[in-house]
Design brief:
The chain has 196 residues and is an all-beta fold. It has strands at 2-3, 8-9, 21-29, 32-39, 45-51, 56-58, 69-77, 80-87, 93-99, 104-106, 117-125, 128-135, 141-147, 152-154, 165-173, 176-183, 189-194. The model has no long low-confidence stretch (mean pLDDT 97).
Length: 196
């Protein structure tokens, strides 16, 4: 839905997914909204859709991931849609894909995180891909990684938060990565950190 200045109105018809949808993420590129989600009509795999001005259409076909996908997160950079998710085909580790104009392709290796990746959020800054997630291999603490063009590398230490970090949200401003999360070490209150 969008707010038209006085009311919230549906963008296209309500109920646009073919069936149930979980782990929804939204990005608006220019005036075009994109969504990613776990698609129960297509084997609980990842689906991305965009609104073409009159209808919601699948980008690259529905259910394009190799296996089940949870914690989907979408970003569109210079017209290219990217999606990250926890990949059941690869032991629930993080996988990152982009749409090349005709099909979805993996960025780096599928399942590149050390272990299960929950609560994924990502951002693209000046062409550099960053991802944050709850890192089960490192005590369910926060980990941030970036793609150097050939492989994924940790930004600082993996598992850098004091305690368990849930529901992370990630942003990069002027080259500085920021992450916010529900901080188990501080009574599940919000903590915001940046990398210096």
């Amino acid at each position: 839905m969008k707010y038209n200045g006085s009311n919230w109105v549906a963008v296209g018809a309500p109920g646009i997914s073919a069936s149930g949808a979980h782990y929804i993420s939204l990005f608006v590129s220019g005036v075009t909204p994109y969504i990613s989600y776990r698609d129960y009509a297509n084997g609980t795999k990842a689906t991305v859709m965009k609104y073409d001005g009159s209808n919601w259409v699948a980008v690259g076909g529905p259910g394009f991931s190799a296996g089940e996908a949870v914690y989907t997160s979408i970003f569109v950079y210079e017209g290219t849609p990217y999606v990250a998710y926890s990949d059941y085909e690869n032991s629930q580790k993080a996988t990152f894909m982009k749409y090349n104009g005709s099909s979805w392709e993996t960025v780096g290796s599928a399942g590149f995180s050390a272990g299960i990746a929950n609560d994924i959020s990502f951002f693209v800054s000046m062409g550099t891909l960053y991802i944050s997630y709850q890192d089960v291999a490192n005590g369910e603490k926060a980990t941030v990684m970036k793609y150097n063009g050939s492989s994924w590398l940790a930004v600082g230490d993996p598992g850098f938060s004091d305690g368990k970090a849930s529901y992370s949200s990630f942003f990069v401003s002027e080259g500085i990565p920021y992450v916010a999360f529900s901080d188990n070490a501080n009574s599940k209150k919000i903590t915001v950190m940046k990398f210096e």
